[in-house]
């Protein structure tokens, strides 16, 4: 068993194969089991730093001639806490990534949906949305789980918009989705009909709420704890396939 930061099999394999982080193997397993990203897909990666999922997403698109696009968003690389969008502030790993991969610096918690949609091909939205966002953990289980759920709910709102709100309890609607007039004004999510959504969460009772919301919205919703997840971690992924139109 390996603790956080301790080199293990997946860490060593990432080093050997040129992935910038061991988390690449989490998306590789998700891809192997669910095949969310296909040639021509338009992929949005929320919380993309340091770029391992960008690498796997681009690989999954196949050769450059197959087309497709991968856009990563992350706040960690911003030099200023103010909202910024700049392709110069995020480093895209050179290995496995090609001209189809772009990364921007932005705070997804404040970014209007129409601004995210504008990053997609022809401004039509994305066919796959991946959220590997994680809060700065405090070690306080309930607090960390609540912060993780907030990030997850933000990713869900960004992906499906008003459709998520219709399945929320009234108090959660007020606290999590409809308290921001800018975001609430944009009812449509940025995930295309038939598209797929992956959200990382920390195991908690809040996860039942995510299942309750997502199951009516998607053709299939399931949970996965990838093999590359450290034994000390409470991370789990909600994989939603086939957004209903």
UniProtKB/TrEMBL annotation:
InterPro entries xref list: RNA_methyltr_RlmE, RNA_MeTrfase_FtsJ_dom, rRNA-MeTfrase_E, SAM-dependent_MTases_sf
Gene Ontology MF, one: rRNA (uridine-2'-O-)-methyltransferase activity
Keyword Isomerase: no
Active site annotation, chain numbering: 200 (proton acceptor)
Tagged with keyword Hydrolase: no
Start and end residues of each Ribosomal RNA methyltransferase FtsJ domain: 19-242
Superkingdom of the organism of origin: Eukaryota
Swiss-Prot/TrEMBL keywords: Methyltransferase, rRNA processing, S-adenosyl-L-methionine, Transferase
Database matches in Pfam families: FtsJ
Residues annotated as transmembrane: none
Record-stated family: Belongs to the class I-like SAM-binding methyltransferase superfamily. RNA methyltransferase RlmE family.
Protein name: rRNA methyltransferase 2, mitochondrial
UniProt source species: Salix dunnii
